[in-house]
Fold this sequence. Notes:
This protein is an all-alpha fold. The protein has a single domain (41-383), classed as Hydantoin permease (Orthogonal Bundle). It contains 25 helices and no strands. The chain has helices spanning 12-18, 41-52, 55-66, 71-99, 103-106, 108-111, 117-149, 157-177, 189-208, 211-214, 224-241, 245-248, 250-253, 259-292, 299-304, 309-331, 333-342, 349-362, 365-368, 372-401, 408-411, 426-440, 449-453, 455-471, 475-487. α3 packs across α14, α7 packs across α8 and α9 (189-208) packs antiparallel against α16.
Amino acid sequence: MRPLANVTMDSDEFAEEYAPDARLYNDDLAPTMPAQRTWGTYNYVALWFSMSMEVTTYMLAASLIAGGMNWKQAVGTILLGNLIVLVPMLLNAHAGAKYGIPFPVFVRASFGPVGANIPAMLRAIVACGWFGIQTWIGGQAIAAMVAVLWPATAQMPSVTWVCFLGFWALNMVVVWRGVESIRFLQSFSAPLMLVLGLALLGFMLHKAGGFGPMLSTPSKFTTMHGFLKFFFPSLTAMVGYWATLSLNIPDFTRYAKKQESQIVGQAIGLPVAMALYSFIGIAVTSASTVVFGEPIWNPVTLLGRFHEPWIAFLGLVGLLIATMNVNIAANVVSPSNDFSNLAPKLISFRTGGMITGFLGLAMMPWKLMATFGSYVFGWLVGYSGLLGPVAGIMVTDYFLIRGTRLDTYSLYRRGGIYEYRNGLNPAAIVALVLGVLAALVGKFVPRVAFLYDYAWFVGFFLSGAIYYLMMIGHRTALAEAEGLRYES
């Protein structure tokens, strides 16, 4: 292939030889240009604060108190989990900042242009589950608001289902009209959740009689063995909470002004934002033990227990608004694009959003959120076993096999150095399947239950190791091919 300098930009020859494959390229997937690289350190700090200030973060922290930890153990577990997931987050973010490419393009290097749809679908399915969970929480909030105005409905389960399906339908209407229809909410949803959380903290602080009684609830674990049995799967859940974004973080870092901006911004933003907002959930849940005699991990349930109707009503309204905004922005846009990418001519973004909504229903979020155990040990730990192997393969491929060198030209074309076998990389597929099986087998085979407790870690390291062993023999050839493309 001749150097670009030897052809004119408007020649038919250039258009034919250098134009990207239409099946792999559109304006949204194209590498960002220098003029688009506008995100500095502050933007990434702000990004993490906006994404962390949501009800599921509160419930994540509250679940640890409900499970028996004291506040120090809960804060320590959350902070450690977020510091751990920060590592693959920064590693996968590197390619986005260096080459300006989004996640679906980046993953083509390791899985191939066709195989890249597999991790994209895994990521999309998890997002569908989160869509269902957020919709269920919103439906519960509406039901609680109705109960404040009409107390008799609190004993009518059908009201909760009607509110849930109504909120789900409202989300579908927004998706059909376009996400721009709630763009005005995005500027204040995170501050709204922060204000709501602080107000709830202040109210419970008053009810509990200060921070002393509020944070004095002891750990229920009397032995180190009992504590560790709960701690390790909880730690896996903390990592799993952001396992989704640790894959598609290039979607954000492709806009970084420079590599240091995203590294410093994320290193500050993720652990600090999660620790601060998680503390609110931890403190309020600890206070609920003092005030109501039991740890109430669901803020909707907690607000419904207030005797001051106006406080409960305003709090539920704020929670509902923020939940809807987060749900559309975080759990619809990504899977809709992933589904659309499967068949761009048949599945539009709008159709992809509809698919997301119906799959969210099919995943029965009411069961995923039935108890703190089903949320933490069923949902979070479970899907971490699906996404950990993908992260391990991506990190291994980019750093250990390719030495951070990618050929962006070939990432948008078939038949090049990333074609492998008909667009699929067998090494990535084998490593992914074995990693997922090893991570999840403990869920069904009691003798190896410990593997499930460490699902994300098992999948990440096992798939990464298998992929490395299968690809190490190709490392020199790949480096030479990418080097030639760099020089052409």
